[in-house]
Amino acid sequence: MNRKPFIAANWKMNLNRTEAQTLLRDLSNISVKDSESEIVICVPFPYLLLATEQFQGSQLQTGSQDCSSHAVGAYTGETSAAMIRSCNANYTLLGHSERRRYHGEKATELSAKIREAHAAQLKIIFCVGETLEEREQKLHFNCIHEQIGEVASALQELPIDSFVIAYEPVWAIGTGKTASPETAQEMHAYIRNVLKNSFSMAPQIRIIYGGSCTPENAAALFKQPDIDGALVGGASLNAASFKSIIHSY
Q1: Most exposed among 56, 88, 141, 233, judged by the fewest C-beta atoms under 10 Å?
Q2: Which of 96, 118, 140, 188 is catalytic?
Q3: How many C-beta atoms lie closer than 10 Å to residue 134's C-beta?
Q4: If you ran DSSP here, which 8-state letter would residue 150 be given?
Q5: Is residue 140 flagged as an active site residue?
Q6: pLDDT value at position 35?
Q7: Rounded average pLDDT over 164-193
Q8: Torsion over CA of 186, 191, 197 and 202, rounded to 10 degrees?
């Protein structure tokens, strides 16, 4: 199955305005000649307009790192999907392990966010992944099956090309640990099989790896048949490193 590679950057809560402008400028010269991948940069909310303006006319797209489960109203500190889309962003990141862990996001809220994003014409990078404890207790497959199953009805309302699944082993995020290409492939293949329960076009859904992808391990990961790209954290804060990952495909 020919699936277009997908590479996303997640800046998390990093960089001041000047640093962000510099990195955005350094990234903006990535062209179609450089990569056939779809490339999305997920920036903090204050930098959405900076990114979309910088990337005008380039191959790069902009994404947010979250969106509200509400459309409008008295929700101080929240940012709606419609607000994000009005900044000309294309994607939003949902279900990231840090949102689940630090903000207690559960299935009902995540399903609402998926629907809000879709209503605002935002595409979605939806994250799933197990903790070290869950893997050590051999509950990792159960965990992933549950995380996909609990939002499947919301995802089924979306066109198949409007969302990407990101597998992020929580034990490999920011720890320096990375799942081996074989371990990552095993889970990606499992995710694709789970998706077959809900989507007739599951072979076309892109599944990307989000566990400390670096220039050193990207090529080996991308050679795996069910790994369609990467959600890049720390390495995306350096233009040379991120470009190296893109060119590893």
Answers
A1: 56
A2: 96
A3: 18
A4: T
A5: no
A6: 66
A7: 90
A8: -100
